[in-house]
């Protein structure tokens, strides 16, 4: 029963790390990534659709994203969605696709991106701590129900704390790595 709590806590904390990794892909570093436009949605035949579902997205060079819709009639819709998404760049339409030409990041933009990354990491840490609290509450409940002794409960709480500490360390490690990538010129 306690092992199930450990396994559940580990799995849920791993999801916190995976969510952080996914969030980090939306932050621009020195080189643009197609992930920057991943959350932009367009109205595609009446339903909100991510850009990747309406065309191909490529990065021909370090500062450019090219979006080629499968249906050319969506060009205006894509431009509008990108302007609404406020990505910090104006889209240009060449008749074949939409081009996003990002200027090189300034030091100020890099520092702002680092702040954003730190906020994402903090959110992941809070999520991990919530998982820890949930696991500890389950342990307290089975101790209260006399399914485990007080000593076993103490050991279980310590083990959950160790799992949490490992997760927080992994989050910090990923944040440090992301900071290096953002600040690298």
How are the SSEs ordered, and which strands pair?
Elements: H1 2-24, E1 41-44, E2 47-50, E3 55-61, E4 64-69, H2 75-85, E5 92-93, E6 98-101, H3 107-144, H4 150-183
Antiparallel strand pairs: 1-2, 3-4, 4-6, 5-6
Helix pairs in contact: 1-3, 1-4, 3-4
What does the model show?
The protein has 2 domains: 2-25 and 106-183, Topoisomerase I, Chain A, domain 4 (Orthogonal Bundle); 34-101, Gyrase A, domain 2 (2-Layer Sandwich), CATH 3.30.1360. The mean pLDDT is 89. Helix 1 (2-24) packs antiparallel against helix 3 (107-144), helix 1 (2-24) packs parallel to helix 4 (150-183) and helix 3 packs antiparallel against helix 4 (150-183). It is built from 4 helices and 6 strands, in the order H-E-E-E-E-H-E-E-H-H. It has a 4-stranded antiparallel sheet with strand order 3-4-6-5. With 185 residues, the chain is α+β, with helices and mostly antiparallel strands. A hairpin with a 2-residue loop joins strand 1 (41-44) and strand 2 (47-50).
